[in-house]
Structure prediction request, 317 residues.
Amino acid sequence: MHKLGTFVVFTCSICIAVPSLISSCGSNDGDLPLSSVLDSEASSQEANRLLSEARVYESKGKINKAIDVYRDVSKKYPRTNAAAEARYTEGNLLDQQGDLLKAFDAYQDLIINHPNSEHYAQALKRQKSVALAAATGVIKNNFLGMKTKISPQKTTQMLANVRDNAPQAPSASEAQYNIGRIWQNDGNAQKAIAAYLRISADYPNSSYAPEAQYQRGQILILKAERGNQNRAHLNQARDIFQDLIERYPSHERASDARKSIAKLANQDIQRSYDTAEFYRKKGNNESAIFYYKEVVQSSKSGALNDQAKQRISELAR
Prediction:
């Protein structure tokens, strides 16, 4: 700032505060630096050059070399239009070769980073097919056609990607159901139950919801049978089956749920009778009579009902 008489003159060092008054001090808002524009154009040109190079390799049957160059395009110039085309073609070639895990990853990159690509829908479709193939346990995983067993962790992550990439599509509930099946087949009851429960919470109207709920009940029964006959597990299974019947009364699993509830009731009666017999043999008649009465109250008729009544009569003398 310099004083000239009574006037104050500001230098251009503060003109950025009043750009409308002194336009010569800088560029307008929103303008891109010329260097950035040139860099972008150069990147696009180089990406297109590599894309053309990869296509030449592909046309000559040099597939592995083509795949390498397509991958370079998407890695070196991910923000260019050529990157989406390169990523999809890379995935498609890997798919054709049978290298399904690498193909899945290429499709995943396109889905995440290039959602506006014309190949987006096809990538989703092929990715789902690969993940469901992996869910069967064994898939071809290289160009020699050799089969590889995929770990539960890897497969469930692939299915989770399919679910999350299109959470409102029917494929989401299908993927989630298969996550539950994988953990169930692997013997991980906790993760299987959690996966099935998510279907009931997030996809209650899907065709997989009744089956997922039925499997939750069956897992809890199996846990009780292999453990210590945990009554909490059995009661929870009964509640799950009852809820299934109420939610999906016309589904075939509703009929299976009714049978499971009846079976649990019969097991309860047998358990009460066995407990009564235990106390009777120990000479604890009072406790024995209590459990015999429980059998009578829980069963309308049948052999155990008749035997329990007879025991009560004998012990009450």
The first helix runs from residue 34 to 59.
